[in-house]
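From the methods appendix. Each design record in this collection lists the tokenized structure first, followed by the designed amino acid sequence. Records were kept in a plain field format so they could be parsed without special tools. The example shown here is representative of the layout used throughout.

RECORD:
FOLD TOKENS (239 positions):
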């Protein structure tokens, strides 16, 4: 497949970069933009290679044209890494903002199971994504019935501005998130999933026990299973 053209500017990403410039300077902002462009180009490429072209990219529709069925598609998992306090959250926010300009419409942000850190992360996304996708956190949909929340808060935005759903990696919170995604019909739009500290709880932590006793005796770890269920629900996604 030939390289899919991507948008490298947009209202939200430009606002993010301007804010970074004002805080840490032009050079850091330019590097952040470069990284975001590189990551989004890869996301658009692998999404289009896996699920078909036309949904995402500079002239994408923002609508899933060929719904994926069955197991999680191969080639949809990538990695952004960096040292502690190296600016990974800024990179995630800039990547998300640019992905919105390229017609991804549902964004899921998973954080460690720490309420304080989770709220801090959600607040950063709210503060920096001005004019972009609408940000919600797990406490907002925990207090409403998933169906009511999805219909009143998510459906008005998901196909236009897009939505960001921030959740801690807690079994109950992830189960609620899964229900919200179903009622919001999130499977109908291209999705990006950002798993902050993916080595924290997201992996199958029962693998060592399974190698000794077998999967019949020892099931997959609960967070690993829930994230897999979420990925299957929004099947046309990059993680």
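DESIGN:
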């Amino acid at each position: 497949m030939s390289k899919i053209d991507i948008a490298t500017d947009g209202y939200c990403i430009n606002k993010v970069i301007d804010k970074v410039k004002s805080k840490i300077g032009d050079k850091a902002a330019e590097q952040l933009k470069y990284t975001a462009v590189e990551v989004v180009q890869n996301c658009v490429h692998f999404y289009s290679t896996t699920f078909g072209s036309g949904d995402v990219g500079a002239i994408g529709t923002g609508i899933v044209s060929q719904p994926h069925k069955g197991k999680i598609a191969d080639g949809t998992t990538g990695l952004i890494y960096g040292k502690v306090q190296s600016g990974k959250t800024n990179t995630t926010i800039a990547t998300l903002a640019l992905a919105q300009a390229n017609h991804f419409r549902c964004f899921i942000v998973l954080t460690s199971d720490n309420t304080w850190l989770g709220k801090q992360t959600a607040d950063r996304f709210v503060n920096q994504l001005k004019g972009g996708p609408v940000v919600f956190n797990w406490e907002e949909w925990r207090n409403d019935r998933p169906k009511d929340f999805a219909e009143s808060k998510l459906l008005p935005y998901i196909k236009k501005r897009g939505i960001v759903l921030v959740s801690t990696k807690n079994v109950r919170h992830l189960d609620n998130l899964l229900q919200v995604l179903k009622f919001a019909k999130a499977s109908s739009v291209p999705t990006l999933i950002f798993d902050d500290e993916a080595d924290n709880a997201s992996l199958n932590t029962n693998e060592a026990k399974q190698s000794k006793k077998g999967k019949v005796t020892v099931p997959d770890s609960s967070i690993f299973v829930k994230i897999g269920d979420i990925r299957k629900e929004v099947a046309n996604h990059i993680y």
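APPENDIX NOTE: The longest strand covers residues 106-111.
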